[in-house]
Amino acid sequence: METSRETIFYSSIRSFFKTFFVILGIFCAFIPIFLILMATSTEKDIADKNIISYLPDDKGEKHLLSSTSPAILRINIEGVIGRDLLTQAAIKSQLIESRTGVLKDNRVKGIFLHINSPGGGVIDSDGIYRLLKEYKKQFNVPVYAYVDGLCASGGMYIASACDKVYTSPMSIVGSVGVIFGPFFNFKDTLNKVGVLTETLTKGKDKDTFSPFKKWSEDEGEMIKPIVQYMYNRFLSIVSTARPKLTMDKLKNDYGAHIFDAQKAYELGYTDGWNVEYGAALRELVAAAKIKPDEKYQLIELKPKRVWLSELLQGASTLMKGKFKHEIQIGPENTEPFSFIYDPASK
């Protein structure tokens, strides 16, 4: 009788675990489907999926105020432009939502950029710059930047949309230039080991800078005018925004050099070099005509699916694992033309 009870007991345990693992297996099977459905959502969806984060004000105080209080939108320009959430589409969604929902009725009185970027892709740098300029003009709000780290190349490009640019004492600013490349040629090396390659193309110079063919003396000539055009636009934008930085000085004296915070201020890249975060924010609040005794809300707009974005891009520790070692030479960037300060690529 005792043996029978034990048999029934162990049989019940086995049945329980079988059922448990079947349910777990079904659940796990639906996870990839869920991720694929979320990943295939269009960029258009981004504009409906931001959430508001409430940040401390210039005094370090964090309060949830009424929906009628004035607000300052903080936008983070951090990391390589064109990657992750630092894209033209993502910034556009933030700007759109800053005029809707609880932020409607012209509640946002100014934009505060927090910059720490080496720059990045030409298209996204220019796109974000134009979005900020259009927003500032359309809604008549001040746009200020606070640099805490690096503001180089594309970062400087975007900062040129601002009315004022302030930096922490240890920030680095500059690098007005454009880069395309570097490129490598393996033709002679492959020939030495007996490896032959062939590429089928149509259209003159379709395989420009191919690493598997012998380069001609005028290789890449058609690309030089494009690089020059992008450089000239960069020079024009910076010199227009920063009067002390004439095109002549930028081309012949400063080039794509970077400068410490104090030197950058002296040359005219910024409006202040030994400024605290709170002080820069107070300057913006005053420019936004928010009264000194009036409470305001400092906010950020972030996609709700930040965690999913990281998961799909392999950025989360869950997907990467703690033991994976990645080797990367210089910041990864998807655009061939870049406004970026990248010593590793030189």
Q: Bin the strand percentage.
A: 15-25%
By secondary-structure content and strand pairing, the structural class works out as alpha/beta
Low-confidence stretches: 39-47, 315-333
| CATH topology-level fold name of one domain | 2-enoyl-CoA Hydratase, Chain A, domain 1
CATH superfamily of one domain: 2-enoyl-CoA Hydratase, Chain A, domain 1
Mean pLDDT: 82
User: What value does the Rg take, in angstroms?
Assistant: 27 Å
The CATH architecture of one domain can be named as Alpha-Beta Complex
Helix content: 25-40%
Ends distance: 82 Å
SSE layout:
Layout: H1 2-39, E1 50-55, E2 71-81, H2 88-97, E3 108-121, H3 122-139, E4 143-152, H4 154-159, E5 164-167, E6 172-174, E7 179-180, H5 187-192, H6 224-241, H7 247-254, E8 258-260, H8 261-267, H9 277-287, E9 297-303, H10 306-312, H11 317-320, E10 337-340
Parallel strand pairs: 2-3, 2-9, 3-4, 4-5, 4-6
Antiparallel strand pairs: 1-9, 3-10, 6-8, 7-10
